Amino acid sequence: MKFIFRHKRLICALIVALLTVLLLAVPAFAAGEGAEAAAQAADGSLGAKALAAGIAVGLAAAGGAVGMGIATAKTTESISRQPEADGKIRTTLMLGLVFIETAIIYALLVVILIIFVL
Questions:
Q1: DSSP class of residue 117?
Q2: Can you tell me whether residue 8 is helix, strand or coil?
Q3: Are 117 and 53 in contact (CB under 8 A)?
Q4: CA-CA distances (angstroms) from residue 48 to 4, 39, 44, 54?
Q5: Which residue pairs, CB below 8 angstroms and at least 24 apart, start in 85-91?
Q6: Which residues of 27-38 are buried (b: 16+ CB within 10 A; e: fewer)?
Q7: Residue (of 95, 92, 98) closest to 78 by Cα position
Q8: What are the CA-CA distances from residue 87 to residues 31, 71, 84 (Å)?
Q9: What is d(CA 70, CA 93) in angstroms, rounded to the nearest whole number?
Q10: Is 69 within 8 Å of 62 (Cβ atoms)?
């Protein structure tokens, strides 16, 4: 029971994230127009692809956002401790943020390939 009270915010955030993913996945299950959409909807792959794509991009964006937040917080702390090194610290931060954003863009490209190629 102590676990629930200690991590109340985390549990609430996870519930909100799950409900958001489910809400965003609703259009994936809607009936599409046209012969191609009807053929894909018949075997159920369209909805599964859309759901998988939404979850993949959501997880990539959430992970990237957490990583960027932690990196920014640590950068702010280190600049406040050593103000004379703020140029090097900011350069390293920007390089790290670029790498994090690149990983998110790669996840988006994989999702686009899943939707349109598979």
A1: T
A2: helix
A3: no
A4: 33, 14, 7, 10
A5: none
A6: ebeeeeeeeeee
A7: 92
A8: 54, 15, 8
A9: 11
A10: no
Please write the tens of the pLDDT for every residue from 10-58: 777 778 777 776 666 666 666 555 555 555 555 667 777 888 888 888 8
Sequence letter at residue 61: A
Quote the tokens at residue 46. 């369209």
Encoding tokens for residue 44? 């159920």
The amino acid present at 93, given as its one-letter code, is L
| pTM of the complete model | 0.60
C-alpha span between 103 and 95 (Å, rounded): 13
Q: Do 57 and 109 contact (CB within 8 A), yes or no?
A: no
Which tokens belong to 94? 């920007």
What is the 3-state secondary structure of 85-116? HHHHHHHHHHHHHHHHHHHHHHHHHHHHHHHH
